[in-house]
Sequence to fold (422 residues):
Amino acid sequence: MKRHILVLAVLAILMAIVGATKVRYDNYKVFKIRTKSLEQQKLIENLAKESKSFNLWHSGKGEVHIMVSPQKFIQLQNYTQTFNLPLEVMVSNVQSLIDGEQISKATDNAHTFGWTRYYPLSAIEAFLDDILAKYPDVTSHIDIGTSYERRKIRGIKISYKEGNPGIFIESNIHAREWITSATATWLINELLTSTDANVRKLAENHDWYIVPVLNVDGFAYTHTTDRMWRKTRQPVNFSPCIGADPNRNYNSHWMENNGASSNPCDETYAGTHPFSEPEVKALADYVTSIKERLNIMLAFHSYSQVLLSPHGWTKELPTNFDHLMAVAKAYSDAVLQLPYKTKYTYGTSSDAMYFASGATNDWAYSEQGIRLSYTIEFRDTGRFGFILPPIQILPHCEDTIAGLLALVDKADELGYLKVKYA
Fold:
């Protein structure tokens, strides 16, 4: 009996060790494949659907970025040669980038939250608690809801006075896009502490609703287990694969025009039905409850350096397309003027990138009447992709505040910041 108990204990320890082991991407490469047609683009995308050795990083106009295991290099080369598709290495070793973004604890002050490294969910929550304690007169906690794994989804409202137009920011809906929550927390701090006159005007004359991490389960999983995880963590009853793409799960033209996948193993799996993911349903319920106070909706993503407006589910242009492009251009022009010369493009989701149904920006625009709604894809264009080095966090944040200042100014000029409620 004692021996049986000992064996069980050893097995439990071994299982715990295996469960705690992080997924590694040693010698995985990311390739850029230039395509000349939508058909060629789909050929490459289908590789990622058929094997766990391939992972789609980006698919857009004229090129696809795909991560490949060392065992499948030759297969990819043969595949692309068959269709005469040029192949270019963008990342030679994904694990080296992952290792590079982890700053040594020996040189890090554990008691100071800053923007020279990436932080886990617990540190971001502690940051929010600290902000709420320091600025009780202008900040308030937003309880968005609870995730599948029973984590709290937290947000913060910054409001200096009643009667301001509202701007909502959703961040880190895709788990691996760490630069988004880093930017969201920096923005919270900047709106409260900056002495720049333009930033003070931006902060004090608008109500800000910011959710730094929406996909809390997936985000936690990227820190403990798999840095490249994208989806939620809710199991799918009829599949061994876990999670859905929360940015395909909104109840707005869900699963239309091949804008998402019905395969639970795909990165763009839309879920079993609209709002099947509790995180998305919770955010949607909250936004619906305050939609009369919101003038602008922004969804922070990475990567590609592009502002995407509705629509993602159709090539049909939104009714205020010209205004949406004018506001996006203002953001792009302002960022390009900074020393970093970061170039943002812009267009509708379906034209500038790909068909995407059930996404935040379409839902906010079509179902909630928020007429300025964008997905903003942050740095970079593929050199580092989702694994943007920590040294770029602050320069990127400088880009973002310059862009937001211009975006809001242009929105105001075009009449989009009139208060909607009495």
Notes: Residues 115 and 393 are 6 Å apart (CA to CA). The domain at 29-100 is CATH 3.30.70.340 (Alpha-Beta Plaits). The radius of gyration is 22 Å. The first strand starts at residue 29 and ends at 34.
